[in-house]
Design brief:
10 strands, single chain, two-stranded parallel ribbon, four-stranded antiparallel β-sheet, 2 domains, 13 helices, alpha+beta, 13% strand, globular
Length: 307
């Protein structure tokens, strides 16, 4: 099949970027992943060790179709403590991306191909494949940056037995810039291109299932994720553009957060508030924990007392 035909169909479904990556004989990026895991930088995210060659996920795969969906809106984070990362402001990206990827897979199958899709839901190195497909490059803060949208993109992949002409992998364009390293309040970016989850605010607010967070981790006002390293990136400041996907426009309660409400969030209220949201990954006890830690930090900085 002609690659452009695939591109046209994918873009018609609403994806903002699409590219094709070839299947390497030996996947060196898995060796890099093992080195990262060996340093313990995954914290307790044991599932990071489950990444597999795509040949294991779909025997006979010949190409990986990579797509990106811009989620940036012009809204600004509140300057009050209790901030939520942009990725979770609107509807769950798994649902938005998943419906589009499912439509792409069905179309490919109608053309006689075999195909299988992933959207942050399987053991696929999303950013690695996106870089190989020419969508962008993996930056010093570990995110994928595109020339057109910065790093404000969700990524997805379709494995297929179609043999499509691959794009040239994208070159890196971070240059000598170190703004993300300098801006991280916990020094989680230990060196360019290496992020230690043990120090990362996003990890602790979203993935850490402990009853209490480490005392030495200051959440810097964040209760869900952290956008600091993306906000300071020159590519995001210069090239971010507002998405045309209305599902990603923020829910009002995610822009101005009531920390006291979150600090006492019930299971019933958690279920109601986070339906259809990627923020549902953060369980009710984690919201209470995160909010209380931010409140304690805020009040301690004012008068030395805790909540």
């Amino acid at each position: 099949m002609d690659r452009q035909k695939v591109y046209d169909y994918a873009l018609g479904l609403g994806f903002h970027r699409v590219g094709v990556a070839a299947i390497p004989d030996q996947d060196q990026e898995l060796a890099h992943l093992q080195a990262w895991l060996g340093s313990g930088y995954q914290a307790d995210m044991a599932w990071m060790a489950n990444r597999r060659p795509v040949q294991d996920l779909m025997p006979g795969v010949r190409s990986v179709i990579c797509v990106a969906l811009n989620y940036y809106t012009a809204h600004r984070h509140s300057d009050q403590p209790g901030k939520i990362s942009r990725y979770g402001w609107g509807r769950d990206y798994h649902k938005v991306m998943g419906s589009k990827l499912k439509a792409l897979v069905r179309w490919l199958e109608f053309q006689g191909a075999r195909a299988r899709f992933f959207v942050d839901t399987g053991p696929v190195q999303d950013k690695v494949w996106a870089e190989r497909a020419g969508l962008g490059w993996i930056s010093k803060n570990g995110n994928l940056i595109t020339r057109e949208y910065g790093s404000w993109v969700f990524l997805g992949e379709v494995l297929t037995d179609l043999e499509l002409v691959a794009e040239v992998p994208h070159a890196a364009h971070c240059g000598s810039c170190t703004r993300c390293l300098e801006a991280c309040p916990t020094q989680a970016i230990t060196r360019p291109f290496v992020v230690d989850a043990n120090r990362c605010i996003a990890y602790h607010t979203i993935e850490n299932r402990a009853a209490e967070l480490p005392e030495n981790i200051d959440l810097a006002g964040w209760v869900a994720g952290c956008d600091i390293c993306q906000d300071v990136c020159p590519w995001n400041q210069r090239f971010a553009r507002v998405t045309d996907v209305e599902d990603f426009w923020p829910r009002p309660e995610n822009l101005v957060v009531n920390l006291l409400e979150l600090a006492t969030l019930s299971e019933v209220e958690w279920d109601r508030r986070f339906r259809g949201s990627a923020l549902r990954r953060i369980k009710a006890f984690m919201w209470r924990r995160n909010a209380r830690k931010v409140l304690n930090s805020f009040h301690s900085s004012r008068n030395g007392s805790e909540v």
